[in-house]
Amino acid sequence: TNHVPSSEPMKLPPRTSIETFTTFIARAGQLCGADNVSIISKSDKLIDGNYMNPCKGHDMHAIYDREYFLASAIICPREVPEVQALMRLCNEFEIPVWPFSIGRNTGVLDVNVEGAFALVEPGVTFFDLHEYLEEHDLRKDVWLDVPDLGGGSIIGNAVERGVGYTPYGDHWMMHCGLEVVLPNGELVRTGMGALPDPTIPAAEGLRPDQQPGNRCWQLFNYGFGPYNDGIFTQSSLGIVVKMGIWLMPNPGGYQAYMITLPRDEDLAAAMDIIRPLRMQMVLQNVPTLRHILLDAAVQGPKSSYTTKSEPLNDADLDEIARKLDLGRWNFYGAVYGPEPIRNVLLSVIKSSFLAIPGSRFFLPEDRHEANSVLRTRANTLQGIPSVDELKWVDWLPNGAHLFFSPITKISGADAEAQYALTKRRCAEAGLDFIGTFVVGMREMHHIVCIVFDRDDASSRGRARALIRTLVADCAARGWGEYRTHLALMDQIAATYDFNDGAQMKLNERIKDALDPKGILAPGKNGIWPKGYDKATWVI
Ligand code: ADP
């Protein structure tokens, strides 16, 4: 055409002309401020950024080309009514929008010591809330739970059902009360938040999103009637703009520890020790059993250990474990409470694990190496965020990662079978097995960290083929994933197909009812709106 505005995007939204897009962008600028709208234009270079300052328009761990998952523009609404207006605008123009949380707002709305909870906005990261607690001298009262890396959004992480490692490690379990913008722009509060409290004087005359919440909004999750919160996780049914999260009352004492297990086969014995201890809450936190290479990769890249490019064998792994004074498997946990309680718990934990021949027990002060994983975990397990564990991604040059994360039963036989399968497939793909078992209350998230070289097309291709194979292999054994990358959403959703895909049919019906034009995150977790020809969109 003869009309080519300077702001032509690298890629237009589906079914959208350049004229429609240009008008939409102008309207979005009027709503949110022109400075808060940026187009990813044809002349831009796609720069990944880094962990603390990631790109917002494409996948910084791209397993396809960087242009494959690409936004046309990035819009940063400043407050809740702008999020609502933007959703109405997207409906008007039928332009799809994908929400993410980390913007520039850092609204810690409330930290309530008596009730031990916080109320946060999407931009609040684990670092932000931690700093808030420190600045206000609140860690003596309440602790936060953090994932391995602290730069993520608390809301973003909880709605994706991410986990951390204190007793409050299941973030979604510990959320309490949501405020959500629906795809049509309506604003709802869930649970007790749906009940206004007219005795709170400030409530009168304020916008709905500014009204103080019910006193029990962050204390009781369920309210009255159907419990809706779950449909806003891993979904495309709303944008969460406020969330309550329970904080852990300062337990009055704390001790992190590590137990090293020398042999590959010790995995099974360890699991059968872990299950009863965890279920009885002798293991109070979300502990992890980590493969040697995860810890080794935190200490240095593959090239610092070996000149090999092929996957390392048992002898190589034993050599690394010896050099690092670690086991083939390394168990990280913590006990919480005053000293007598800690001593009792630790004595049970020690005597249980030390039944495994060659196992050894360490406290953080026993470790003197640089970048000690135990010393980092000693912070993580008391809710102090860090980025130390980012280092394992550098195992390979230009390192990027994909998580393959099947759920497994806490049992020696199950863990062994899943480990054997994933290890074999990694080796076939020419990649090292790097993994960890993250122990929940009744199950484990088995996290296989697929590290690849993002600038090497062959490495990317092998990582893609590996994860697709693993999804299929595991489904054939009844193992399913808890969360995934955009590229795998369709394949994984299709494995959850009990009774002729009944769950997907339900999800699609809800999607079409709440978002008839399919403008919010179409395809998220494999759910395609009715206006999309699923067969042509599925990857
Ligand atoms: P991370 O970078 O840690 O993955 P994001 O902020 O990108 O975190 O969030 C991950 C995913 O969670 C997003 O792709 C989106 O699907 C969903 N998400 C994040 N924030 C929200 C929110 N406020 N409301 C609804 N979904 C969200």
UniProtKB/TrEMBL annotation:
Residues 351-524 form the FAD-binding oxidoreductase/transferase type 4 C-terminal domain. InterPro entries: Cytok_DH_C_sf, FAD-bd_oxidored_4_C, FAD-bd_PCMH-like_sf, FAD-bd_PCMH_sub2, FAD-linked_Oxase-like_C, Oxid_FAD_bind_N, Vanillyl_alc_oxidase_C-sub2. The keyword Flavoprotein applies. GO terms for cellular component: mitochondrion. Residues 104-191 form the FAD linked oxidase N-terminal domain. One of its GO terms (biological process) is lactate catabolic process. Its cofactor is FAD. The keyword Oxidoreductase applies. Keywords: FAD, Flavoprotein, Oxidoreductase. One of its GO terms (molecular function) is D-lactate dehydrogenase (NAD+) activity. This is Vanillyl-alcohol oxidase. It comes from Cryomyces minteri.
